[in-house]
Specification:
Elements lengths: L2 E5 L7 H9 L5 E5 L8 E3 L2 E4 L4 E4 L2 E3 L3 H12 L7 H9 L9 H13 L9 E4 L3 E4 L4
Parallel strand pairs: 1-2
Antiparallel strand pairs: 3-4, 4-5, 5-6, 7-8
Helix pairs in contact: 2-3, 2-4
Length: 140
């Protein structure tokens, strides 16, 4: 008899799936995916984020982002106007607690601005909220 595993939660990087499969090593198993993929495209200005394909387009051209950049951008774009702390952004990228003193979040925000903003020194989309964190602002 086969064991049936049902994956219901979002698993963008496949960690949950690998952990389950490692736990079942040597057993017969069938994997059933119940959650239908979302086809929602997030947009702000001339930026499009295709979460299912992990693709970002700026004015129709693909922008190459690494895992941390994409994860932070996706979190920011998922709730325009909402301020996300460095801790929340760090957790979105690496699924671990933010280590104070590290500049990982600031570096990724800097790289995102370089890749997505027309003038990174005067960002239109990715805004800093002093003593709070960062947010995506949709242009009017």
């Amino acid at each position: 008899m086969k064991e049936v595993i049902i994956i219901r939660a979002a698993d963008p990087d496949g960690r949950m799936f690998r952990a389950i499969m490692d736990a079942l090593r040597g057993r017969r198993a069938e994997v059933i995916e119940l959650a239908a993929p979302s086809h929602d495209i997030l947009t702000f200005g001339d930026i499009e984020i295709h979460p299912d394909r992990r693709v970002v387009l700026k004015a129709g051209e693909e922008v190459r982002l690494n895992h941390g950049e994409f994860s932070m951008l996706l979190l920011l774009a998922s709730a325009p106007g909402q301020v996300f702390s460095k801790d929340q952004l760090y957790d979105a990228a690496w699924h671990e607690e933010y280590r104070y003193g590290t500049t990982a979040v600031e570096n990724i925000i800097w790289r995102l601005r370089q890749k997505l903003e027309d003038d990174p020194r005067h960002p239109v989309y990715i805004k800093t909220v002093i003593r709070s964190g960062y947010k995506i602002e949709k242009p009017r």
